[in-house]
Amino acid sequence: MADSSFDIVSKVERQEVDNALNQASKEISQRYDFKGTNASISWSGEKILMQASGEERVKAILDIFQSKLVKRGISLKALDTGEPQLSGKEHKLFASIKEGISQENAKKVAKIIRDEGPKGVKAQVQGDELRVTSKSRDDLQTVIALLKQQDFDFALQFVNYR
């Protein structure tokens, strides 16, 4: 019997982020507490730009955006936000979406699989993803359950389970 495998990736669907951003923008334009504050959220190249007249307003925009991301099933670990910065009379906050597993994070995950996972399970780093193989599908299910219990500082998805 051939080996079974799955890939561990850290990817975010751009369309879902776009939808969350549009929903947040619509809510900001309709909310009474944002009237007259020049509050907005939009794409600025590959980053997301949030701006308003006060630091608390920018943080409120971020909170709205995060709630929309969660409703769309996107982990907040994939969102990398900076600190609000004063630019003229406006406060600006940039956020970016983190994708891909770095080499050091992939090695951490592989080490956990090696140390705590069932015997006979192999993990290989392939670029910005990790391939896990085993002869037993039950062992692969055990590895997925093990990794879901861990608290990483990056989002994980399990794809290509075969």
Name the descriptors.
162 residues; Alpha-Beta Plaits; 2 domains; 4 helices; 9 strands; nucleotide-binding; Nucleotide-binding protein QCN29_12520
Strands, count:
9
Order of helices and strands: EHEEHEEEHEEHE
Helical content (DSSP H or I, runs of 4+): 25-40%
Name of the CATH architecture of the largest domain: 2-Layer Sandwich
Question: What is the CATH level 1 assignment of the largest domain?
Answer: Alpha Beta
Q: Any low-confidence stretches, pLDDT <50, length ≥5?
A: none
N- to C-terminal distance: 13 Å
What best-fitting shape do the alpha-carbon axes yield?
elongated
Function: Nucleotide-binding protein.
Pfam family, one: YajQ
Organism: Streptomyces chengmaiensis
InterPro entries: UPF0234-like_C (IPR035571), UPF0234_N (IPR035570), YajQ-like_sf (IPR036183), YajQ/Smlt4090-like (IPR007551)
Short structural summary:
With 162 residues, this protein is an alpha+beta fold.
Any overview of this molecule?
With 162 residues, the chain is of the alpha+beta class. The protein has two domains: 4-11 and 101-159, 2-Layer Sandwich (Alpha-Beta Plaits); 14-97, Alpha-Beta Plaits (2-Layer Sandwich), CATH 3.30.70. A hairpin with a 2-residue loop joins strand 7 and strand 8. The mean pLDDT is 90. The strands form two sheets. Strands 2, 3, 4, 5 and 6 form a five-stranded antiparallel β-sheet that branches. A four-stranded antiparallel β-sheet has the order 7-8-1-9, covered by helices on one side. The protein contains four helices and nine strands; from the N terminus they run βαββαβββαββαβ. The longest helix is centred in the N-terminal third of the chain and has 17 residues, at 14-30. It is elongated.
